[in-house]
Amino acid sequence: MDLEAVSKRSAFHAKPQGLILQYGTAGFRTNAQHLDHIMFRMGLLAVLRSKQTKSTIGVMVTASHNPEEDNGVKLIDPMGEMLAPSWEEHATCLASAEEQDMPQVLTTIVEEEAVDLQQPAFVVIGRDTRPSSEKLSQSVLDGVTVLGGQFYDYGLLTTPQLHYMVYCRNSGGRYGKATIEGYCQKLSKAFVDLTKQASCSGDESRLVKVDCANGIGALKLKEMAHYFSQGLSVQLFNDGTAGRLNHLCGADFVKSHQKPPQGMEMQSNERYCSFDGDADRIVYYYCDTDGRFHLIDGDKIATLISSFLKELLLEIGESLTIGVVQTAYANGSSTRYLEEVMKVPVYCTKTGVKHLHHKAQEFDIGVYFEANGHGTALFSEAVEMKMKRLAQELEDEKGKAAKMLASIIDLFNQAAGDAISDMLVIEAILALKGLTVQQWDAIYVDLPNRQLKVKVADRRVISTTDAERQAVTPPGLQEAINDLVKKYKLARAFVRPSGTEDIVRVYAEADSQENADRLAGEVSLVVFQLAGGIGERPQPSF
């Protein structure tokens, strides 16, 4: 490792004095002007991680649903999963090191992780459509090359597509071909095979209108359109030709504002969905005959998918373990419906995709979605092989169900939550079950809920347990929340510190919107009083 060459090259990507950023669930994210040094250093780190794992590592330049002026970067581990936690710490140390200390930090990582520097390294890189992404991805490649790493630049990709490419390259092609064409062919073949079984697909035109958040999803859906033109008609809005990335559009906007994106005229009895800026989240919505907006979020997506998978398993007669993984933010009605009506076990983890993904891997079939629309389904290798074998061997109803399940396994991007893949799964299931979007929405009624934020001097005063559903500190806070919850029907509430800023997030649900709002306001006030609130005091509505 030529540390002198690294230091010389690093001078062209100098770190602003005193700037400290933390590698979180989504990697690094901030204003694009502050990221040049971080990109260079993540190129260095990707080479070391590749040498240590003897695998291809991915580097994605994106800030997902953040505003257009922001950017970010995250590393992708060999099986398409998120970077290992110990390497997240290395990323933070390396990014935060002052210029003169950086060579020593690199040396420490090599020693601690027993990196064989003679091992070759290979890194693949992708980027979203932000104006800053191309230049920042060049800074990553600068870091890769100065340490002697080989690379392949995919250029413009959705984040899930890069996860897919990494997984393909490290599975010896077993998972698929590591090209855009390979991705499109795998998903479209599975979709067409699946929707062939739908009795109504011939006479009913299946149209879905997609808000692409003025991001990369529009480009990639256009590339794919001709692959599945028979089974599905896709109309794009906010496709990046006008309008700013994520501005008044995209999955995050629709979910948080509970209203349609700009530039989309809604009509009743039509299906709509929104991607986020890097196409790893999806939410559905529609407008009823009275003109009211209805959101279908990640909870209802997980319910549709897991219920369908459970039905297929019952048809096939296989006793496989299936589990749905949620966070504390999942609506209580979805949990009750899954457990009591569908008899599907539900598990709760801490917020953050890596926790959900990890838990979902414990089952033969694990489905996870956050309420924000980020999620997928995971299938064990044994399930995959068994379904493909049964699909070939059996000609009866069991064989038909096994064929469907084999196609669904191929249709999911098991490396990461993927808005394109998830949309195709949802559209296929709706066609196969002959469901309208209103019928899907009606499978259960969401409990009214409210989310609020409270500014605090130091978010670390709050610690939680039980998948973030119980506050451990400060003393007395959980007891106060319990007393407030008892006042309302079907109520629950929890608080958790933000992972990135000094705010505490408050969630409350109850039998009516008025009661959910009241409970959220009252919990916010006790957080302000007991956890060192700053700024404006919350005003609960009494």
UniProtKB/TrEMBL annotation:
Catalyzes the conversion of GlcNAc-6-P into GlcNAc-1-P during the synthesis of uridine diphosphate/UDP-GlcNAc, a sugar nucleotide critical to multiple glycosylation pathways including protein N- and O-glycosylation. Residues 209-283, 297-434 form the Phosphoacetylglucosamine mutase AMG1 domain. It catalyses: N-acetyl-alpha-D-glucosamine 1-phosphate = N-acetyl-D-glucosamine 6-phosphate. Its EC number is 5.4.2.3. Residues 472-523 form the Alpha-D-phosphohexomutase C-terminal domain. It comes from the Eukaryota. Keywords: Coiled coil, Isomerase, Magnesium, Metal-binding, Phosphoprotein. Gene3D superfamilies: Alpha-D-Glucose-1,6-Bisphosphate, subunit A, domain 3 (3.40.120.10), Alpha-D-phosphohexomutase, C-terminal domain (3.30.310.50). Belongs to the phosphohexose mutase family. The lineage of its organism: Eukaryota, Metazoa, Chordata, Craniata, Vertebrata. It is an enzyme of class 5 (isomerase). PROSITE patterns: PGM_PMM. Residues 380-407 form a coiled coil. This is Phosphoacetylglucosamine mutase. Signal peptide: none annotated. Its cofactor is Mg(2+). Pfam families: AMG1_II, AMG1_III, PGM_PMM_I, PGM_PMM_IV. Binds 1 Mg(2+) ion per subunit.
